[in-house]
Structures are given as structure tokens and as C-alpha cells.
User: Fold this.
Amino acid sequence: MHKPKNNHPVVKPGLHSRNRHTARYDFEQLIKCSPRLESYLKPNQYNDLSLDFSNPDAVFSLNEALLKSYYGIEYWSIPEGYLCPPIPGRADYIHHAADLLAQGNKGIIPKGDQIRCLDIGVGANCVYPIVGIHEYDWSFVGSDIDAGAIGSAQTLVVRNSILTNRLELRLQPEPRDIFKTIIQKDELFDLVVCNPPFHASQADAEASTFRKLGNLSKQNKPTLTRNFGGQQAELWCEGGELSFINSMISQSKSFGDSCFWFSTLVSKESNLEKIVRLIRSSGVADQQTISMAQGNKKSRFVAWTFLDGEAQKKWVVERWAKCL
Assistant:
């Protein structure tokens, strides 16, 4: 005999109003788009279909189904061990970034392929470009220091018509450089997005994984299997996210006329105050911190621009006129 049905909220609290994942997952619909997902679903104690989020194969199948069902993706795969990010949170970043662009455009989100975005660390999964291209018709350049990730991402471009001529991939040959060699001479970007490696070492990344798996599986000694995957460059770097974002801020100065808004996720709230101070001491014209949430999980991204008011108006007139 099953327990009485749980009273789940109809809408997931905190997600952006335009996020396609504010409601509970419609697993029956998702199975139609990706039949393999069904094998990872089973009734929970309330007789609702449920997914084991501690199982990386289950997480992959869910992402595949979401991207096929909601974002026009025909084929999606990533090499074993690469980051398989949660789609709702990634989509939220793109929607809030769209609102950021709208601030300088009379409240209207600029759409169309003339809006060019740079995804720093695009990874093998291409989730930010997929969401941005489908939702706002933007075009993207995705950079990464991992040749394997770039190769996988290129396969996605080739096998998905929605990405063709909308996503260009560029390998960063020098891991310490973020924008150099990626942003070409006279090239302009309206938005930079980034999900930086946030751990300072492999040991930190593994400790975090054990904590997450322990919470998901409620086991005392979970096996070390990253449910969302992730390679070294995706999960950790020397100094962690604070060091990476510090470099990003510093290096962005040289490209202040090439990009309207730079932005990056900040995973650790404890780093936020210092990161904001670093941005404000870098000669920016404006800086913003945008808060996001998915249920009880809080997140945020920071954004900054070196363009003053007049430069911003000129940018909008010259680049976004067709978007009005």
C-alpha cells in the first residue's frame, strides 16, 4: 500500500519565469523524446516516477531528454567522464543574462544571430549555447582548453541543425589565457558567460562529490562516481574559482571595448564580496550581482562592463537596432 500522494509544489520556487523547467519533470513526455530514460525511472514512496540522481547514466539520460524535448536538439552525447550539467540551472543563467542585456535596450531583450556571445569553457556539453540559441536566436563562440571537449562539441554542431552556423568552437592553446587568441582583432561580443572551475584541487573536488553523493543516496560510504561528471579543467584549477575569476577580471581589461557585458558564475557565496571588490577596483563602468535560486539552492553570477553610458548607447544603436 502506497503512502498518500506527496503535495509537491506545482512550480519550482526561485527559477526564472521564462525557464522551461519551473514545473516538475513530465517524465511521460520526456520518455517519448528519449525512450532510454524510462529504464532509470521507478516509483517512489508516493507512487510518483522518480530518478536516481546519484546515478551518472540516469543524469545523462535526463539531460538528453530535456535537450531533445525543449531545445530542438536531435543528438546529444558527451564522452565518458565529462561534465553533464543540470539543465534548469544553466538555463536560468542565460535567462537572467538576457534580462541584463535588456536593461540597455529599453527593456527589450535583443534577439537574433547578430547578438554574439562568448562561452568561456564551453565544455563537451554545449549547454549554454544550446539554450541561448534556442531561446533567443543568439550566436555563440565557445572556447575551451581541452581538445577532447572541443572535439565532442564540434560533433554536436555537425549533428544538430539548430547549432549549424550558430556555434563556433575555438581551442585555447594557452591555459593561462582566457580571452587572448580567442577574441580576434575587431571582433565584438555582446555577452560573455562562464562557469569557472570552482575547486582548488582534485582532493577538494572529490570531497565535494562524496558529500553530494552521501546526501543523494543517504549512504554512509558512497562510491566515488561523479553523478554530473567533470574533467580536471571543468572542476578544479590552482587557487579555485577565486583565482580563476581574478584572472578573468584582470584579463578582461584589455578587451573592455570588445565586449559589452562580461559575466561569470560564482559558486561559493563566501567568495562573492572579494570578487565584487576586485571588479570595482578594475576601472569598470558598471557592475552587477544577479541572484538565482532553484528551490533551496542559491546561486549567483557577477557581471561587469567597461563601457560608460555613452559607449553603451552607441553600442546599442550600432549593433542592436534590428532587435527593436
